[in-house]
Every structure is written in structure tokens, then in C-alpha cells.
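Technical appendix A lists one of the benchmark inputs used to test multi-chain prediction within the project. The record comprises two sequence entries:
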Amino acid sequence: MKGFTPLVLGILATLGFSWLGLAYIPDLQIGHLDPQSDEEGTDIYPMPKSGMAERGRRVYIANGCFYCHSEQLRPDYAASDIERPRDAAPSAPPKWGDRRSAPRDYIFDRPALLGKTRMGPDLANIGKAAPAEEEAAPAQPSPGPPVAPAALPPAASTSPPPANAGAQQNAKPAAQPSPPTPAAPPPAANALASPANAAAQPAKPGAQPPAPPASAASPPQTAAAPSPAASPSDSPVAYSAAWHHQHLYAPRSLNLDSNMPAYKFLYQKRRVGGEQSADAIKLRGEGAPGEGWEIVPTYDAKCLVAYLMSLNQSHPLNEVKSAAAPPAASPAAAKPAAK
Amino acid sequence: MNPTEIPLKSPGSVTDLSIGEVEQVERALIDASTRVPVLMFYASAVVWLLLGTLLAGFTSFKLHSPDLLSNVALLTWGRIRPAHLNVMLYGWASNVGMGTAIWLMARLCRTTLRHPLVLVTGGGFWNLGVLLGICGILMGDSTGYHWLEFPSYAAWTLFVGYSLIASWAVLMFRFRRGDPIYITQWYLLAAFLWFPWMYLAAQTMLFIVPVQGVLQAAVNWWYANNLLFLWFGSLALGTAYYMIPKVIGRPVYSYHLAAIGFWTYAFFASWTGMQRLVDGPFPAWMITASIAAMILCIIPVATVGLNHHMTMRGYFHLMHYSPTLRFTVFGAMSYTAFSLLGVVISLRSFARYLQFSEVSSAYSHLGLYAFFSMIMFGAMYYIVPRLVGREWRFASLIKIHFWASVYGIGLMTLMLIAGGLVQGLNMDNPTLPFTESTQSVLPYLRGRSLSGILMTVAHFVFAYHFLLMLLGLGRTASVPTFLNPVNPEPGEMVAH
């Protein structure tokens, strides 16, 4: 090798070339995407996440969730990602998604947590998997018109075995008219305040409460549910906020095969003062807090669940073929979404 | 012939064809001038290695026993794992690589190291950066970017340290004597220039003026693969190009091959980043370019492998004696295995199954341990005696280190590849529940934990041996420590 200068220039240039190719040019191509909207400028997708969900992203990162959970679905010709149903739902389980992920899905994400390994399922659409009531009241307060009743308090969101259906009906409209801010106060022992905190859902103005506090519904339910822990009828509806909390607190109480560590440090165990909090985790059998104690999510846990509930790539994108769309829609769109 | 009759110095390599007494003295002076900084890098590297090994074992056990100590935020799996990774990358591997590179630079530039305290300061900043970064990760301050988890306060401390170290290493070129720049110097100079290039580019595009959405992942993996190939890979290849000819006392087989290998490596390896994101949400051309680059990386692998092989030809039996050669050759061979596995997992038909499986972990460990770390162990077995003026005390400990490492990394690779294959096949079968894929890989992960025990033994044995050397408890002998009693055929030259 002759000469110092050509060597140094060559060294700098090779890496510069790859930077140009893999960072700079892609930035020109897909680095400045806008949200998509229809002709009237409505139906905008994607939207920025709420402050609570963004804080949840930090919790998600801090605890390394993205090392085991990806947030990207590969196209149907490349893998069977979008055909895969989720494990937890008993009937008609939601699929991982209807379409592949595209660059536009992530334009507000910082960082975009695409993930590298799947020791746990993909989460790109985990918010979409929530039961219908949850879906109508997404964790972020701002976008979308408020519809339908707010989140069910955990006690009520069991899939109804006929025996305690009545109790469920009572509990359903338990949402309180509290200020619709995501910055819910830290869980108070006061049972009346807590249904609003339940599952980190902002209360919806529509649901005027006859408000039996959730705990009022639980004694009959407990009585009517003699089955041991992890019986499906005891568990909250799969992928609801209450389900996520229980899953984070004690993963194997919902799925014996789960390999996820428990995140008990995101929850508080405290004495029940008066009525039990509505957002307390309804654990039975092993791991139950014991008489007079309850387990409630910390604010970080609520943010984390708000983040999970906000993950939803189900909105169709023009550049991507959806599984639901007619196949004619897209010979070209099957290609990854360039601008 | 008994060991005392074996010549102490190598009979010469390409850079120094005639060795007179003067040059021997000169070398001793150069070695002495590097003693403090290089030993400091080595000592901190070994401390980080032990810590990283413990964290690795913890990570590995927690992956199949998720309830192990999971109730403390600091010890949750998702914090221990990046802590392990970053301790190994920036604590162990970078420290040992920089220490070796500084020593090699001084030797090859034939210049004494001026003002070694600047390097010591740089090393101090570097280690402080690593410490801050690890604490940050454990406290929950991770940035969320793979291999760049250090929060900004740690990242910039690290970079200040790096600037001091690298400018010093590059400045040595100014004082070099003898014009031909040896192959090792290409690689080392390149590594020292590439690292700040990629680190600054990544820091800028991810934190200062962040790019949009998925491009962050693209920049992230561009950085991570370049760190693996252009930083660690270059340091290791450069070291191997020095150690192999030096130990067997024979010039490198072909300079031309080496030049082809170097430039193709620089050109193709730097393009491989998107190989980790096959069929992800990116324009397909980016991924295809990286897959093509990965395949083209076979060219540097083949040329480097051929070059080393032809250099070694007829001298393979020396691996029976020289610890340096044994570790280095194992590392050089692993480079081939590592690259081939890289090609396989990038191909779309394999990536379909393997992309999200544990095979990617096997790939990283092959690169960072079997290839890089083994070459660096070899280099330490060569360099440390020259710095402390003592020889390694126990051949048996070196053997334990070697075999425990080899069986450890071998078992780990096998377990992760086999387990990852099962996992990936199950994952791609939508009729099976997802947990089937994670359950099916658990037995292999337990096997991997077993391999971790072997490697833990290896590292603690090595650290103990290194500590003896630091304390001046090595052997005072005029011959190096051989793995086996030397009984060469008449007329054969054996060097350490």
C-alpha cells in the first residue's frame, strides 16, 4: 500500500458511500412522509400518540420490551405474520394484523421500535386486538370522536358466564365523569374516584353513571366464580386494559406457557382503604394479595398500557395491500411503500 | 531439544527482515513506553469481561426462568440484557481492541509512545462513559436503540475518551519510521477512523436531528453492523494479520490478496446493515442492497481466509504449542463461519424463518466472541508478557481457558442455531399457537445457559492468570509459556 493519504481517503470514502446509500438517500426517499388523509382532509392516519402513551413508550423502552416484541409485520409473501392469530382470545382470535407494516405507520414514532427477536408476539396491532368497547375508547384522548361507553372496570370485563351476567350489567356504566385528562391522579384509595382511573381510560362524557363502584360488583362475582385462578371465565377480556395489567403483573396467571417476566415493580400493593379500587388487579389463587390488600397499577404501568393500547396499524394505507381489500387493489402496492 | 534452546525472538516477519541487537533494544523501549496505557486498557477490559459474563449468565437464565429475581426493576430481563451487551461491546471488546491496537501501532510504526498519560486519560473517560451508560440502562434511561442504549451523558463521555485515544493512535503515524504501511496498520487505521465516523453519524441522525420513523431503525442497524464489522472486525483482522506471521516467523503469503481483502471488506461490509431487517417496512432496494453486500462479503472472507491459510501452511502444528497462535487461528476460522452464517440468515428464503429467532443471537456471538474475542485473547497472550516482563505462569490455565471457551461458544452456537431453527419454523406456522414457538426453544436456551457456565469458567481462569501477571507473579524465564512441551524436529524454527 503506497502512501498514507490515499489510504485515509479510501477509508473515509468507503464508509461515506455506505452512509450515502443506506442513510442519506433513504432519507430523501421516505424521510419526510406526511400522514395520509382522504379527499376531505379527514380520516387522518397516523396520528401522534397522546402524552400518556408517549410516556408509556419510555417505560416500554426502559424495561427492554422491544428486545422480545417486534412491532413490524412482514408482507404475506415473505412470512405468515399477518395470518397468525393471537393466543389469548378464546373465540375468533384477532390476527396479528391485516396488512404489512409500512414506513408511514411509524412517522410519529421516536424511536421506531421495530424489534429484532420475537420471544413474545408482535405488538404492531395489539391495541387493535382490544375488545370492541376498548377500541372505541382508545387510550389517547384527543383523536377520534368519543363514542360508546368507556372502558369496563376490570371486575366487569369478564366474558360473561350467564350466572353473573346481571352483576356485569350493573357494573358496565361505571365510568365516572371525571376530567378527560390522561394525567389521572395517582390511584387514590377512594373507591369513587378510581373507576375513572381504571385501565388508564379517560372517562367519556356520554356515560352518565348510576355508578355502582366496581367493587360493589365484585363480591357477587367472586361468589359466583368458584373456579381456581387462571380459569378463563375469571380473567378480564383478552387484550383489554385490565387484561394487560394482569398480564404485566402475573403473565402466567393468564397463559401458563407465557415466557414473559412479571413486571410486579410497576404495581403497588396496598391496604384497601374502604372500598377496593376499581383498577385493582383481580388475581385469584396463588399470587392474590390477600384479604384487605389490593394491587394497583402505578402511573408508569398505566402509561405503558396506554402505549400498548395505542399500537394499531389497522388503518388502511394507500400504498399497502390490505388482506381485506380486493386483490386487484394493488399489484404495485405490494412493493414496500416508497413515497 | 529442550525449551531453553528455542529462540526467544521470532526469526523475522515482513516488517523487520533483519533483527539486530539494536532493534531488539528498540523494541523493548517501544514496549516499555506502551506499558502503562495498554495494561490499563487490558485490566479494565478484563474487569468488564467478568462483569459482562455474570450479566450474560443472568440474562441467559432469566430467559428460560422468567421469574428469577424479576421483582426488582434494576434486575428485570429487559435491563440486564442491554447492560450485558453494552458491557461486552464497549467495556470488554472496545477496551481490549484499543489496547491491542495501540501496542501494534507503536510496534509497527516503530516509534515509542509519547505522553502515554493522554491515553490513560482517554481510557479513563472511556471507562467512565461505560460505567455511566450501564448505570443509566439499569436505571431505565436506555435510548431504545440496539447497541446504542447508552443515554446521551454516557455516550458523549465515551466519545471524549475515544477522541483522545484515537487521535493519539493516529498521530503515531506521523512519527512512524519506514514507509511501507503493513496490512495490520491499514486495518487499525481504518478502525480508528471508522469508529468516530459511524458513531457521530448515528448520534446525529438518531438524537440531534433525528430522522423520521423507520429510518431510525435503518440508521440504527447501519451503525450496529458497522460497529461489528468495521470496528471490531477490523481490529480483529488487523491483529490476526500481525500475530499469525509473527508467531510462525514467516511473511504473509500475499500482499495483493490482502489488499483485495481489505478494500472489498471496507466496501461491502459497510453496506450490510439492513440485513437485520429483511422484508421490514422499508423500500425493498435497501434490503436487497444489504443482502447483496452480505453475499459479496464472501470475497473478503475468501481472500483473508486463503491468505491466512497459505501463510500457515506447513505450520499448523505450531498451534500445539503457541497459545497466541491457537487462539488467533480459531478466531480467524470463526470469521469464516460467522460470515457464512451472516449470508444464510440474510437470504430471504431463510430470513422468513430465522429473522426473529434466536439465530440472530448466535450470529452476534459468533462475530463478537468466536471471531473477535478469541483473536484478542490470543493477542493478550502475546502482548502481556512483553509488557510485564514475565511469562504466563501456568500452561494448564491457558489450556483450560482455550477449551472452555471453544466448547462454550461452540455449544452456544449450536444451541442457538438449532433452537432458533425450531423456533422460527414454529413461528411461521400460523396454525400453532405463538407460545409453541417460544416453548420449543426453551430446552435449547437451557443448553445455552450450560455453555455460559463453561465460558464463565474460562473467563475467570483467564482473569486470575492475568492478575498473576499484573502482580508480577509470572514466570521469569527466557522462553515463552508453551501449551505443550516443545519437541520440534531438528532444524525447525519455533517462536512464541
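Chain A has a mean pLDDT of 73. Chain A is about 25% helix and 5% strand. Comparable benchmark entries are summarised in Table A2.
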